[in-house]
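Long-time lurker, first post. I've been practising inverse folding by hand and with some scripts of my own, and I keep getting stuck on stretches where the C-alpha cells seem ambiguous. Below is the full C-alpha cell string for one chain I'm working on. Before anyone asks, I'm not after the true native sequence, just a reasonable design that respects the backbone. If someone could post their per-position residues I'd love to compare against what I wrote down in my notebook.
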C-alpha cells in the first residue's frame, strides 16, 4: 500500500516558526510531525510513502536520510507548487495499478487510526473514502453532508453558511481512477477541484479522537499543550 504525505506548503501563517524550518518538521513533544505521520502510516500497513517538497527541502531530506524505521520514503521536489491535487496527478504513474492509495496533509495532527480508513474503503469498494470530524468552526474548512449510509451527498469548501458541522479532515483513500478528474494544468487543489467531483460516489469515516489543523502559531502552541500520544483513538464510519 502506498501513501502521499502532502508537505510542500510554505507555512506562511506559521511564521516566524517556519522562517528556517518547514512546517512538517515542527516538533510536537520533541518529535517532528513528519515522524508522527510516517509512524501512523507504518501502523496502517503502508509500505511506501511519497512526500512532496518545495520549501527548505534539504532539511526534510537530511532528516529522512537519518531515519531507519519503516515505511520506505521517496520525495518529489516541486520547483513550483502544483497544489495538493496537482501533486497526485503529477505522480499518477507511481500509483498506477494500485487498488487504492492514501493521501494525507502533513500539517494536521491526529491520533486517528488510519487502518480504520483503509478498512472502511475496502469494505465499501468505493472510488474514494474521506475522513471527517465535527468542527466548532466548519466554515473554515470543507463542509461535508452525508446520507444515512455514510455516502457523501454534499460538499462545499469554506462556505459562508455551513450545511453541517462535519468537516473534511484531510485523510483520504482514493482509487487511482479519481486522478482522471484532476485538471492537467496545475495548480489544482483537492478541496476545491477534486472533492466536489466525487460527491455521490465517495463515503466518509468519522474521526472520533484528537484532530487539529496546525495552520497557525496559535494552533501549534495549543497542540504542544494538549497532544498526548498514545493508542490510536477509536473511530467509526460516519452516519452509521
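-- Answer (accepted) --
I ran through it position by position. Result:
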Amino acid at each position: 500500500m502506498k501513501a502521499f504525505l502532502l508537505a510542500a506548503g510554505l507555512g506562511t501563517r506559521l511564521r516566524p516558526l517556519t522562517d528556517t524550518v518547514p512546517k512538517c518538521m515542527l516538533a510536537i513533544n520533541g518529535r517532528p510531525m513528519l515522524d508522527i505521520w510516517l509512524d501512523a502510516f507504518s501502523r496502517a500497513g503502508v509500505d511506501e510513502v511519497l512526500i512532496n517538497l518545495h520549501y527548505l527541502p534539504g532539511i526534510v531530506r537530511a532528516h529522512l536520510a537519518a531515519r531507519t524505521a519503516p515505511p520506505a520514503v521517496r520525495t518529489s521536489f516541486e520547483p513550483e507548487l502544483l497544489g495538493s491535487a496537482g501533486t497526485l496527478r503529477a505522480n499518477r504513474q507511481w500509483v498506477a495499478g494500485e487498488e487504492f492509495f492514501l493521501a494525507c496533509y502533513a500539517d494536521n495532527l491526529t491520533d486517528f487510526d488510519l487502518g480504520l480508513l483503509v478498512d472502511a474503503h475496502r469494505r465499501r469498494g468505493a472510488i474514494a473514502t474521506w475522513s471527517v470530524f465535527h468542527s466548532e468552526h466548519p466554515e473554515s474548512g470543507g463542509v461535508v453532508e452525508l446520507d444515512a449510509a455514510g455516502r457523501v451527498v454534499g460538499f462545499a469548501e469554506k462556505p459562508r453558511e455551513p450545511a453541517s458541522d462535519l468537516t473534511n479532515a484531510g485523510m483520504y483513500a482514493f482509487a487511482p481512477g479519481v486522478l482522471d478528474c484532476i485538471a492537467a494544468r496545475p495548480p489544482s487543489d483537492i478541496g476545491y477541484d477534486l472533492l466536489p467531483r466525487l460527491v455521490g460516489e465517495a463515503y466518509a469515516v468519522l474521526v472520533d479522537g484528537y484532530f487539529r489543523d496546525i495552520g497557525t502559531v496559535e494552533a501549534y502552541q495549543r497542540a504542544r499543550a494538549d497532544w498526548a500520544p498514545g493508542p490510536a483513538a477509536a473511530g467509526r464510519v460516519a452516519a452509521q
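A couple of notes from the structure itself: The CA atoms of residues 172 and 231 lie 21 Å apart. The mean pLDDT is 91. Happy to go over any region you disagree with.
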